[in-house]
Amino acid sequence: MKSVVEIIETAASSGATGYTFSTHPLNLKILSALQDSGKIEQGFGLYPVLPYAQGYVRLANEKGMKGLVDETLSRLSLSDKAKAVFKGGLSALRLDPIGILKAYVDMELAGYLSEKPVNATLRSVLLHEVVTDLCLGLRDVHLLDVFAQHVREKYHVSPGFVTYNLANFVALFRKEGLSMKDVVIMTPFNSVGFQMSPSRHSCESCLSALPESNVIAMSIMAGGYLKFNEAMDYISSLPNLSGVAVGVSSKEHAHNTFMKLRTITEVSGQSAQISEPVKQPSEDELFE
Amino acid sequence: MKISVVGLGKMGLLHAAIVNSLPDVSVTSVCEKDLFLSVAAKAVLPKSVTVYRDVKQMVSEEQPDAVFVTTPTDTHVSIIDDLLKTRMNLSVFVEKPLAASHEQARIVCEATKGLPGVHMVGFQKRFSPVFQKAHELLNNVLEEPIFFRAYCLSSDVLREGSAWRSKRGSGGVLLDSAPHLLDVVIWFFGEPESVIAVKKHVYSHQVEDYVHAILSFQSGLQGHIDACWSVTNYRLPEFLLEIHGKNGMLTVTDDFVHFAPGKQTDGNAEGRVYHRQSFPTSTPFLLTDPEYSLEDVAFIDAVRTQTTPEVDFVQAAKVNALIDRILENTEQGRRISP
Known about the structure:
By secondary structure, chain A is α/β, with parallel strands linked by helices. Chain A is built from 10 helices and 9 strands. Chain A has helices at 2-13, 25-37, 53-77, 97-114, 129-137, 141-155, 166-175, 200-209, 228-236, 251-268; strands at residues 18-22, 45-50, 121-122, 124-127, 158-162, 184-188, 215-218, 241-247, 271-275. The longest helix of chain B is centred in the C-terminal third of the chain and has 20 residues, at 313-332.
């Protein structure tokens, strides 16, 4: 735990402007340890991504989809955040999915906000790519909108979406007349087109055509396939990026990475964030 | 093209989202037997999708061109039967494995024999560029395979579960986690001539949590597999196949394929690694791994052209046959004590 905290502190002192993390229980401990250590400076941004999808997949495997829904709802019904939604009891006929979604977001975030280092600032709350892209594929724009509105109204920060389908995402928001003005989009950008659907070219065209962009590039090294310098050559060539999220695995790695990023991003006006510091495989093997 | 989905688990949602994003394809209905989940689906899904609780009623009223069946394994055969009795020319995609036993798989193969429509099973590793490259290297580069070893490991079951995957007749590590591995083995080497296997219960009482099997093939090739869903420290499932031939070794995982040539005994050349990122993969819509999208595109194309898909029911039934043979051997295998 100490080493993870030190990695984040090193990244922050080397130029990282924020921390992107999933709502994995480990990150709760990390935030708590960061708070205790007190070394995070004023304005350091937090970008939680929820839900921690792999945990839910494991629960679905263990208990089935019905078991997953039952367990999540019963956890919610015990939460202070959800009392109003469950006033009438838990039954299919009284189901209020919108109320449940909002209560769920609140429940997921509550612990993290209470453990937030004093100087850190919540910048955005992002929806995991599996949920964003499920809604996108199903054209379920209403759920995306409910999430966005709730984050704006309740937390007074920009709603965020992680997606592997940038062009599709932007097209759907435009078609449905949803505001993208303050929406943060975190999406892969790398020179080999890894996780860039339908193609690298279409993602690049979409990015350059965005009038006001809050796009944060992720997977810039294509899941460890590219070297940092070649990744940055490509990222620096892109217009309109507002930030870059990079994972690092040691203090030295954090220092070197963010010192280099500081030079590049200061020129281009981007910000650089640290994503979860312990390098993990991407959560893209969620389905059997 | 109108699509229906039966079963709103994670695979049902996955396929629904992918196919609904393909050009000229729409998911117009879903069927979920569970009352609570069906009401939840009605409340959450777009109004363009009608939610049913009865498969026959859905097919009669919606007249879909194709149906995705993503329910627990032991329900596949009766659902396919209901679907095809309601509409004979329906195309059907079934999530792997085809059935809970070879006997059930055989019944469904008989029932669909000669019927119009496309009948496919979701063995998505066949659509992974990494596995396709490994298959090519096995056929064209690796000389005279001597033996292989393979495993699929995960930390999915670290206590006894209550879902269908943990119940006798519908679950177990072989039926749930190993079908992809067994399909790749059959795809690469054909069906084994003989099987020797052992199994172990770690957490589950009704089903096996670990299986080890030695497979022998008519060509003289031998190999062994390990399947376990109760090992610790696997945040994500891991798959590996290592094939040793006379001129080197081929290793394939979900992330890369590596050919290490080694004609001499005094050291191996480095060989070449093909990472998944190095393959140009264009998918119209990406949800998790690209092979799910590529698989769904292949199914929709097969339905449009009414051609036989990569893994039809007959091919998929071979995996069920092998699972049954392995399980049977774990029960009956003769052990020789000192």
